[in-house]
Description:
The protein has 227 residues and is mainly β. The protein has a single domain, classed as Lipocalin (Beta Barrel), CATH 2.40.128. Helix content is 7%, strand content 67%. The protein is built from 1 helix and 11 strands. It has one helix at residues 2-18, and strands at 23-37, 42-53, 58-73, 76-88, 94-110, 113-126, 138-149, 155-168, 178-191, 196-207, 214-226. An 11-stranded mixed barrel has the order 1-2-3-4-5-6-7-8-9-10-11. β1 and β2 (42-53) form a beta hairpin.
Amino acid sequence: MKKYLLLxxxxxxxxTNLFSQATNDAGLWATFNVEKKLTKKFGLFITEEYRRxxxxxxxxxxxxxxxxxxxxxxxxxxxxxxxxIEKYMDDNTFSYRHRLMLDIVVKRKFGKLAASFRERIxxxxxxxxxxxxxxxxxWYSRNKFELKYDLDKPxxxxxxxxxxxxxxxxxxxxxxxxxxxxxxxxxxxYKLNNKNQFGLYYLIQQEFNxxxxxxxxxVGIEYSISI
Length: 227
């Protein structure tokens, strides 16, 4: 745990030093999740998300996650999802993208504190029929650490930090084999009942080691249903 905290502090300082070199924007992310547990260890999920950018004034993208998960152990969850993305471009056209994601999540509880680590490997292609490199996938690794605190109430606060590493992107080869994006999140989950949950969070995203870095300030809302 100490080494993860040290990594978080070092990366935060590094990102802060690069903060002034990036452009800034604010936006909204709205998410709707549906999960169906088929057995104790296996289930399906669907996620819909809508994002706005340019200080909340312009549509950024829509996406849908279609996935399955398995929990072979109480502390381990593995999921696989396909995500079609419609990203709204500056010329008022859409860029169509397709992403596959493999998530491995490990959770441990320490009294009222719950800690989790998620490793995500993702591959994405874009503009397959209109780009010479459309079929060449972009490969990333995304490491996310999260801490939740049980208040013995419907409200559960949490903190999260995510680091993204670029294996290969044919459109941005200068960032290959580099860490280039961090996300920091502070949020609250409100459990309405055993099947419904509402979430609210604030997220800061910082980019570096890329040609045109941008810092995002995101207000996020989530609604989740288990059926």
